[in-house]
Every structure is written in C-alpha cells, then in structure tokens.
Design brief:
The protein is of the alpha/beta class and 278 residues long. It has one domain: TIM Barrel, CATH 3.20.20. The chain is 41% helix and 15% strand. It is built from 10 helices and 10 strands. Helix 1 crosses helix 2, helix 2 runs parallel beside helix 3 and helix 4 crosses helix 5. The longest helix is centred in the N-terminal third of the chain and has 15 residues. It starts with a strand and ends in a 20-residue tail after the last helix. The structure holds NADP nicotinamide-adenine-dinucleotide phosphate. NADP nicotinamide-adenine-dinucleotide phosphate (NAP) binds next to helix 9.
Length: 278
C-alpha cells in the first residue's frame, strides 16, 4: 500500500500515517510490530518510557525492510531533560534499537514545573547537527513552550505530537502548530478505549462510505492534516487502519466529527501545563 508523505520544515518527509507501539512488548510485541511493518507502516513510534525500544529494533530486523524506508521515532523522557542527560538518553535509545540514527526524536513531555525542557531541546539541536537524529521535534508542547524553545535556539521543531481524537480535536493547538510550520502528529488517534465508534457522525460516515468507524476517524485525522499513529496488535486492524486513502469525507462529515469535541475530552487529564511524566 502506497502511503502519502508530508514535507517537514527541515526538508525531510514524514508518512501521513504511522504505527504506535505502546504497550507492545516481548515476543508478542515483536510479532505485532513486525506485522505492522509487513502490512506497510513505515513510521514507527516508540519512546524510552514505553520500555520496548529493543523490541522495535528486533521487529525492524525481522521484517527485513530496507532501513532507509523506515522513519523510526523515539522520545526523551522527563528525567533526561538536562543537556548531557538528553545526549546520553539518545545514545541509549540507539543502542537498544540497534540503529545508528533515529529519523525523528522528540522531547516526550515538557514537564514545565521542572523547567528543563529547553536544555533537552538544545541537545536535540546538537544531535541533529551530528547526524545521530535526522528530524527533531516535541510532544505535548503548548504554544508557550514552543515559542520559548524557538526563541532560545532559533530552531523550530519539525513535529509536535499531541493528544488528538474526536473527543479532543485540538482546534487551537493545530492552528498554533500550523502557524509555526510544525506538523501535528496525533497520539491516541482513535480515542483508545473511549473510541467514539458508535457516535452518530462516525457511524453515519462509515455507512455512507462503506468503511469501518475506525477508518472514518483516521481519515478525519488525515484530512485535518494531522499524522495519526494508531496502535493495534491485530494484523487485520493494522491493515484496516492503513487503508484510509481511498475515500474522502465531506466538509459536513468532517465538521460533525470535530463537533464531538468537548473541553474535558482528554483521555486521562494529560494537560501539558500540569501533567508530570518523568
Ligand atoms: P489508539 O491508537 O487510539 O487506540 C489503540 C486501541 O484501539 C487498542 O486497544 C487497539 O486494540 C484498538 N484498535 C486499534 N485499531 C482498531 C480498529 N480498527 N477497530 C477497533 N479497535 C481498534 O491509542 P494509543 O495506543 O493510546 O495511541 C497510539 C500511539 O500513540 C501509542 O501506541 C503511542 O505510540 C502513542 N502515544 C503517545 C503519547 C505521548 O505522550 N506522546 C501518549 C499516548 C500514546 P488492539 O491492539 O487489540 O487491536
């Protein structure tokens, strides 16, 4: 299956959909991740805190797809926000993955009360210059966090990975990212366990286009210009989730799904201003 790509602000390309690997672990995790690569995913999302970088590396080797076709993304945890710690953390990720570079590396959460995310960002800027990391970005950053790191380094993240699903459509953050030239990636893009598969606008669009509700939600993500990274351990769902480029939602269908959003729609209250994740 041919997956379209987006051009990032650093001249590199990002697949329009990726594969989320949390909480895939162990042999079953390796099998599921290798299956995802086999059905066509080329963007793989992992993190130090998922504890599965070793499994992701093994799945890559097992799948046998040329390395240059893959976009492997990991993330620096809050406890590694100091400049030297962030460099060390990245070397650890590469070692566990068994790779000589990451294609995308993110600051996982800003943890603003700790006040060190700008040091982690400076480390990513230098790691990119060194070639150990191809594209650099952030996750769960607000407009204030973004403007601070851009002001301090002159370097704009290529990606901001944020919680984004129909119950939390992130209208404002998507606009901030777009204004700054940052590509939005969507975590928990289906809404995880609260996936709004039976909500009338989702069910009606699925019926109208002859597709599954999950495909409607992922197509909504694609048409928003956001890059969803759905996780599934099930090969048939992995394939189904990838198959969202053969139909188009109408403007009314798009608007009706976005209107499912609600202020308290976050899955676990992960407000980047207050959520601490080390
Ligand atoms: P998600 O992708 O929205 O949902 C995953 C759940 O939906 C799984 O239980 C999966 O079950 C099920 N599912 C998948 N496809 C389906 C389909 N077609 N029909 C019905 N059910 C389906 O949520 P997520 O795993 O929380 O998020 C995805 C990725 O985002 C994570 O894996 C991780 O890489 C990333 N993430 C990042 C952050 C961050 O702070 N940056 C936070 C959370 C997550 P089965 O596996 O049984 O198919």
């Amino acid at each position: 299956m041919e997956i379209p790509t987006h051009d990032l602000n650093d001249g590199r390309a990002l697949p329009a959909i990726g594969f989320g690997t949390y909480p895939l672990e162990g042999d079953e995790g390796i099998t599921a991740i290798a299956s995802a690569i086999g059905v066509g995913y080329r963007l793989l999302d992992t993190a130090v805190n998922y504890g599965n970088e070793t499994e992701v590396g093994e799945a890559i080797r097992r799948a046998g797809v040329p390395r240059e076709e893959l976009v492997v993304c990991s993330k620096i945890p809050g406890r590694d926000h100091g400049y030297d710690d962030a460099i060390r953390s990245t070397h650890g990720s590469l070692e566990r993955l068994g790779l000589d570079h990451l294609d995308l590396h993110l600051v996982h959460w800003p943890n603003p009360d700790r006040g060190r995310y700008a040091d982690a960002w400076r480390a990513l800027v230098d790691l990119q210059k060194e070639g150990l990391v191809r594209s650099i970005g952030v996750s769960n950053f607000t407009g204030d966090h973004l403007r601070r790191i851009i002001d301090e380094t002159g370097v704009t993240p290529a990606v901001n990975q944020i919680e984004l699903h129909p119950y939390f459509p992130q209208v404002e953050m998507r606009a901030v990212n777009a204004e700054l030239g940052i590509r939005t990636e969507s975590w928990s893009p289906l809404g995880k366990r609260q996936a709004p598969f039976t909500e009338p606008p989702v069910a009606a669009a699925a019926e109208a286009h002859g597709v599954q509700p999950g495909q409607v939600i992922l197509r909504w993500q694609v048409q928003l210009g956001a890059v969803p990274i759905p996780k599934s351990a099930t090969p048939s769902r992995q394939l189904e989730n990838l198959d969202v480029f053969g139909f188009e939602l109408t403007d009314d269908e798009m608007a009706a799904i976005t209107a499912l959003g609600r202020p308290a729609g976050r899955l676990f209250g992960g407000d980047p201003e207050s959520h601490e994740e080390m």
